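Structure ticket #2291
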Amino acid sequence: MNKISIILPFKENFSPTYAGAASLHVEHITQNSKYKKNIHVYGSTKFKERFKSNYINIDFNQSFLQSNQKKYIKNFIELETLKPSSLIEIHNRPLYLKQLVENVNRKFVFHYHNDPLSMNGSRLVKERIFMIKNCKKIIFCSEWVKKRFLKNINKNFIEEEKLIIINPSINKKKIDFRKKKKIISFVGRLNSAKGYDIFGKAVLKILDKHKDWYGHVAGDEPRENIEFDHERLIKHGFLNHNKILKLYEQSSIAVTCSRWEEPFGRTSLEASSRGCAVIVSKRGGLNETVTNAVKLNELNSRTLYNEINNLINKPLKRKNLQILSYKNFYLDHKYIANITDKYRSEILQNIKVNKKHLKIVHVTNFNYRHDGRLFYNTSKRINNGLILLNHAVLEISDRDEIHYSKSLSDFYGDKKLNAKLISVCENFRPNMILLGHADKINLSTLNKIKLLLPNIKISQWFLDPITKKGPDYNKNKKRLLDKLSIVDSTFITTHPREIDFVTNKKNIFYIPNPVDKSLDNLNISTNTNPKYDVFFALSHGVHRGILKKGKSDQRTKLLNLLYKNKKIKTNFFGFMSKQPVWADSFLNELSKSKLGLNLSRGRPVKYYSSDRISQFMGNGMPTLIDYRTGFKDFFNDNEAIFYKDNNDLIKKILYFKNKPKLLKKIGTNGKKKYHKFFNNKKVCQYIINKNFKIDNHKKFYWEK
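Resolution: structure written out below.
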């Protein structure tokens, strides 16, 4: 197998005696890597005790007259020439890359553990562009560090597939929360950058008020003297890593209140893994270290005192925070090692993504348990579109999985669903996950998958109305926002400008309800002597299947108006105690009418329609559409029938019902255009293009 060389920063101690963050990370990942036997770690330390990994210490005579950093890399290059590597991984010293690129022809990966803009070799934009060009991958310990690296770089120079976030890790240990002691801990450099002065002032007040609580401090700082004394404030000085973890096992509350923009924040990560109630400042990447924590809105001793005091006074809240912090922790060594090995395998095996033949996991409700009643649905249309584009699609029917997985240990069935998705991704290794109303897929699951497959694209499509003018506004808003922070793109059947709760909409796109030529293949407008004038079907939920007693719908007011008009023969379902129709029965009833009423819940908004518009127009039914939806942008009067209000709707029905030739023309033209521009292949290609940033300079028809 290929040799992998890891080069640490000069004077980084690859030793349990006084290990730095980079050394800890390298040791933990190497011990859990499938490439363990092929990894050689290079460093320079005076400590005799070393970590277990295959380590080579670079010894040389140091000098004040020339750069020891350059001599260090020069010596590494000499060793590298004798035993060449297939891959060199550089940690936290951008200047090393330039010297190596000039002297050896290798594949390089760079790991950032700190702010790129604070380091020689990556402060300047041109230096960071050099890194992008010469590295196979650039690894960041947090999203914040990645954003810093990309600052002021023109997007034309950014190769997104090279830029990966891999967080530090720590293994969880089984915690007995009953044995937690009344300890508030602070670990780190005892300086103002780390907020030790803020902690000290707050904890002294806490200890004076709560006589049975203790403060524990672990760390040192020879360059800054900040002293706090109290009979119950225990100062340990510097502790090795194992003793720090022991302290966290005992602590109830852990504080990381840095003023400094922390690149990641290992202390809060470790505190979370040991079940502490963690308090963090909103600095740098600290927000990314803990799934559940108290985050300080203001960084001062008064605010910190209030938050600690609150956790002490509310033991149930404190315990709940401890349990959630521990339960949702997932950044263990094996997990991060697998992610690291993934990019190594890609580089060493030269794996490339073929965007014309992607592997896609499609998670949505395929309604298998409804025995064909809901076969004609958008999930199926989108899935068929992806297959027609020659992509390999693995379907997960989330609602079916949940339905059949419920048990006493998994009451809602969602645990098994989330575990299944992770397992599928581990085995299938998809290029993309497409979520359709997959509300039970957890954010933490998608985070795990992103770490496992750093280059994966995650996207969601959403069919329900999501504006204040529509129904279930707060519910649909919450559903859409739930995954907005992690998905690469979101596709909705409402024009994005109608959304009032998202400021940055650059990754939110409109898609029409697609048609599928295998599902939507009728020519209703050519039917002779249809029995009814207008068709409409309403339901109180597709999964329920039948009407719900006592439930009303604002659309019934208009339906009543049409139903009572003796000049109009209506064929309405889900109305006047007439149950909804589904599947083949739906199509049969559709075929008995001259016109289809495209009426959606809520007030009309730009481009929104339920999927009935694709079923109507896709099957050649002349369709009545509210003018206020803006569909006049897509269809003319020879392709659809537009009405302005209720009175205008009645006039249009009465006029067109006796014009069979005109209805045939409108139905035929509408179907032709809908199938040409709004078919599932085009909609799915649009989704692929936006996810993978494919720009063929040709706009899709709906990109008005």
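Closing remark: The chain has a mean pLDDT of 92.
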